[in-house]
Design brief:
With 260 residues, this protein is mainly α. The protein is built from ten helices and no strands. 18% of the residues are buried.
């Protein structure tokens, strides 16, 4: 379907070749080939899809941190925002499914790219020279990604599943004041807090390489590239550190047992 795209070409040339390939598909009138999986069968297209889904998740991380920060600054605001996010029809019916799809798509594409890279790499791991070829973060994206995926499973178990049970299985009446107390209680266990800290540390490494390289993958290469890279590096540190601070703060500021 696609002409061969050399992954070593500069991103702008490879991207142009991808566009020509897509034009060939439309010109051939083989509409049955116009599937999502057909389009992303090109290595460059897979990287673009991976980058776009990553940028979407990066935006979600920032929004999620802003909401969680209110747990430190104003418990009432945290309750109000959490209640809105948990009961708004647009958020629950549209944005939440899109977010779940984005997470699954990003990790699936990551595994696909890793398998493709391993099968096509001319220099096998036995002779791969590690840091002389790339940074530790870029060489171990699959490892940090797996840990983050495991953390997301824990996060769903801690928050999303209990919320679904509370609202749809046990059918409790709405209580806009319960969110802060429930969240603080989740961070009572130091082992759980430690898991959060380690996971967000690996998230920082994942973002350090992934966020910056995503701009290159979508063909963004101009006079603003250096500034964007610096912003991506700062974001990769500040966002995970923010989550770590919140987890430790809530652990050290537990409510009296009668408040649970």
């Amino acid at each position: 379907m696609f002409r061969h795209i050399n992954s070593k070409l500069p991103i702008n040339k490879s991207y142009c070749l991808l566009i020509r390939n897509l034009r060939c598909i439309f010109a051939s009138r083989n509409l049955e080939n116009l599937t999502i999986m057909g389009i992303i069968s090109s290595s460059i297209a897979r990287k673009v899809a991976m980058a776009l889904s990553g940028l979407f998740l990066v935006f979600f991380l920032g929004q999620h941190l802003v909401i969680n920060t209110t747990a430190v600054l104003s418990p009432d605001t945290f309750n109000s925002w959490s209640h809105f996010m948990g009961n708004n029809g647009l958020v629950q019916g549209l944005l939440q499914p899109i977010l779940i799809f984005g997470v699954v798509f990003h990790f699936v594409m990551g595994f696909v790219l890793e398998l493709k890279n391993r099968s096509s790499r001319a220099v096998k791991y036995a002779s791969y020279k590690g840091a002389t070829n790339a940074s530790w973060a870029s060489r171990n994206m699959i490892i940090s990604g797996l840990v983050i995926l495991s953390f997301l499973g824990l996060h769903f178990y801690d928050f999303w599943i209990p919320e679904m049970i509370h609202k749809y299985v046990e059918s409790h009446p709405e209580d806009p004041t319960r969110y802060y107390t429930e969240t603080v209680h989740k961070f009572e266990n130091p082992v759980r807090v430690g898991l959060y800290v380690v996971s967000f540390g690996l998230l920082a490494m994942h973002l350090w390489h992934g966020f910056a390289s995503s701009f290159q993958s979508v063909g963004f290469n101009n006079k603003y590239s250096v500034a964007l890279t610096r912003f991506a590096k700062a974001y990769a540190i500040l966002i995970p550190v923010g989550f770590i601070f919140i987890a430790i703060y809530l652990h050290l500021n537990q409510l009296p047992p009668s408040s649970h």
